[in-house]
């Protein structure tokens, strides 16, 4: 741990009455008691105790444990522990521990494929980490942020972040581990842009340090990325199977080693990249087998929604081998899971494969509808890049605050629905933030405001002939339901294109807000325009207390993680981070 534990323990004792550190074991127990679906409550904690794990009793020890959980593949438990520890760390005002906490969250969100959350946590971590005392951590976070900026479509900011990271790496004495992490993540950023030659150069550079570090997980990751980058580069060159075969054999051996070490969360990228090369060379049977290995490992790692990548490739394999009914099943599952993931590129790929499957089946109307969704997601991807470029240019001339923001998209692009006459106030994001600042200043410093993030669950079609999902109409429905159900002192705003955020009136307890969320989540109604017997939709909610010692972005991250936790276990539910 980078922070001296003695100082942390002294601070903990001094602030135990106000921060709750005296009962820190209870916080950690609650975090570790986050079961995977279908596991009895408390089982994970009992298993940890049986395995000889001790309960961390200080914030520093808890965060070290959270980092170990994330790196060891127990990403959900590690992130939950970080979110539970964060308010206490903020209350103590320890910027070093705050930076460590957010950097652990960046890595966890990165593994989960939650690129927007990773970028938000990464930006906060970079503000908290002092480059003079912890340059290695800052460089590592920069590289992770760059990868997720690429996934989010913010290409200009991504490359600027990589450049700043490389400069900081050159200006400070760098250990082999720091070099390995940075260049491995840089390779992942280039790979996400299909710049395979650049990715291979960075990956090979990172793998050069793999033999000089005492970190089995990072060493495994670096070697695996170097292998994958070679496969992807050869595939891009349309290399024959004779050149790819030795690499494929090495990949299978590497996958077996990673699974044996318990790092199943690393298998997804290997399975997808390997399958793409196999599909390109016409070896669909081998691709299917590799994808099923990746599917099993991804489920075991608790990364369910990330299966969209696997399902899309399985749909391709079955379509190319003539198993159209099975291809349709995989394509529908890919679209369903992609709708739960961030990033229009993944959704676009899922919709495109769905369109190709419908076309092969002769369902022209459905093929056209799926292709329209593909085009819409591609337009959203390019719009995201354009917005990112606009912001970067505005920042360069030093007039970001004085410039007019980019024009809002039309209602067809997914902007917020028109306000209905309800009890709650509907505010813009700027007005929402001002309202929160005013509400916090008006009440006692010990009072916490309750934030709730709500998202409509994807409709579940009954069969192939059921009409496709209509996101705009469903968003309007959820907005209207929220406005009607919330009280006069509550406020409502758009969080992004898919989610709403609610701030309950001052004095509302987390328990009372959770009861309201439970009532809303069970309000299941038919999709607009469909008969009563048609598909239904529901909403899920995540809640967190917004304390005076933290900023809005971290509070929203905690509520968003609670929502993600709900979506792992099903839909039509509500959960809070206590």
In CATH, the topology of the domain at 418-527 and 535-577 is named Alpha-Beta Plaits
- Order of strands across the main sheet: 1-3-4-2-7-8
Oligomer type: single chain
Question: CATH H level of the domain at 418-527 and 535-577: which superfamily?
Answer: Reverse transcriptase/Diguanylate cyclase domain
Account of the 3D structure:
The protein is an alpha/beta fold. Among the domains are: 1-113, no CATH class; 130-216, no CATH class; 418-527 and 535-577, Reverse transcriptase/Diguanylate cyclase domain (Alpha-Beta Plaits). Helix content is 64%, strand content 6%. It has helices at 5-14, 16-19, 24-32, 43-50, 59-71, 75-92, 95-112, 115-128, 135-152, 155-171, 176-192, 196-207, 216-236, 241-260, 267-280, 284-300, 307-320, 324-338, 344-361, 364-396, 429-442, 471-485, 510-521, 552-569, and strands at residues 425-427, 449-456, 491-494, 499-503, 525-526, 536-537, 539-546, 574-577. Strand 3 and strand 4 (499-503) form a beta hairpin. Residues 1-53, 399-422 and 460-470 have low confidence and may be disordered.
């Amino acid at each position: 741990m980078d922070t001296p534990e003695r100082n942390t323990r002294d601070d903990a004792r001094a602030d135990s009455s106000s921060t709750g550190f005296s009962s820190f074991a209870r916080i950690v127990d609650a975090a570790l008691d986050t079961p995977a679906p279908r596991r009895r409550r408390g089982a994970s904690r009992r298993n940890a105790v049986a395995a000889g794990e001790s309960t961390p009793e200080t914030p520093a020890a808890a965060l070290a444990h959270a980092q170990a959980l994330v790196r060891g593949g127990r990403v959900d438990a590690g992130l939950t522990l970080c979110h539970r520890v964060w308010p206490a760390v903020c209350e103590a005002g320890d910027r070093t521990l705050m930076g460590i906490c957010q950097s652990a969250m960046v890595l966890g969100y990165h593994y989960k494929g939650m690129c927007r959350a990773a970028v938000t946590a990464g930006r906060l971590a970079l503000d908290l980490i002092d480059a003079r005392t912890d340059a290695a951590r800052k460089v590592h976070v920069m590289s992770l942020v760059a990868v997720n900026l690429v996934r989010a479509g913010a290409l200009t900011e991504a490359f600027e972040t990589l450049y700043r990271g490389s400069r900081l790496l050159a200006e400070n004495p760098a250990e082999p581990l720091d070099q390995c992490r940075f260049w491995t993540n840089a390779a992942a950023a280039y790979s996400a842009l299909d710049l395979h030659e650049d990715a291979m150069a960075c990956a090979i550079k990172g793998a050069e340090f793999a033999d000089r570090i005492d970190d089995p997980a990072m060493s495994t990751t670096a070697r695996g990325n170097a292998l994958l980058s070679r496969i992807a580069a050869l595939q891009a060159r349309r290399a024959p199977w004779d050149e790819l075969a030795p690499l494929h054999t090495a990949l299978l051996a590497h996958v077996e080693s990673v699974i044996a070490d318990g790092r199943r969360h690393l298998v997804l990228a290997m399975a997808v990249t390997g399958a793409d090369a196999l599909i390109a060379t016409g070896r669909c049977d081998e691709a299917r087998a590799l994808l099923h290995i990746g599917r099993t490992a991804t489920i075991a790692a608790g990364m369910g929604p990330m299966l969209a990548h696997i399902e899309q490739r399985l749909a391709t394999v079955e379509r190319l081998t003539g198993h159209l009914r099975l291809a349709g099943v995989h394509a529908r599952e890919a679209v369903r899971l992609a709708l739960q993931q961030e990033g229009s590129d993944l959704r676009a790929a899922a919709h495109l494969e769905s369109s190709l499957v419908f076309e092969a089946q002769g369902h022209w109307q459905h093929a056209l509808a799926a292709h329209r969704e593909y085009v819409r997601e591609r337009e959203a991807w390019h719009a995201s890049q354009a917005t990112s470029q606009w912001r970067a240019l505005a920042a360069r001339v030093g007039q970001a605050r004085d410039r007019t923001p980019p024009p809002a998209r039309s209602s067809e692009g997914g902007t917020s629905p028109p306000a209905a006459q309800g009890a709650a106030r509907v505010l813009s994001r700027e007005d929402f933030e001002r309202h929160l600042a005013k509400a916090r200043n008006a009440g006692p410093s010990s009072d916490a405001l309750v934030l709730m993030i709500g998202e409509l669950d994807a409709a579940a079609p009954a069969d192939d002939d059921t009409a496709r999902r209509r996101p705009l109409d469903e968003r309007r429905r959820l907005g209207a339901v929220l406005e009607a159900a919330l009280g006069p002192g509550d406020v409502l705003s758009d969080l992004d294109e898919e989610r709403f955020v609610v701030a309950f009136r001052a004095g509302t307890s987390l328990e009372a807000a959770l009861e309201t969320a439970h009532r809303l989540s069970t309000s299941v109604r038919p999709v607009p325009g469909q008969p009563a017997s048609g598909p239904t939709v529901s909403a899920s909610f995540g809640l967190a207390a917004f304390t005076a010692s933290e900023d809005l972005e971290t509070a929203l991250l905690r509520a968003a993680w609670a929502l993600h936790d709900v979506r792992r276990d099903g839909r039509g539910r509500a959960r809070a981070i206590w």
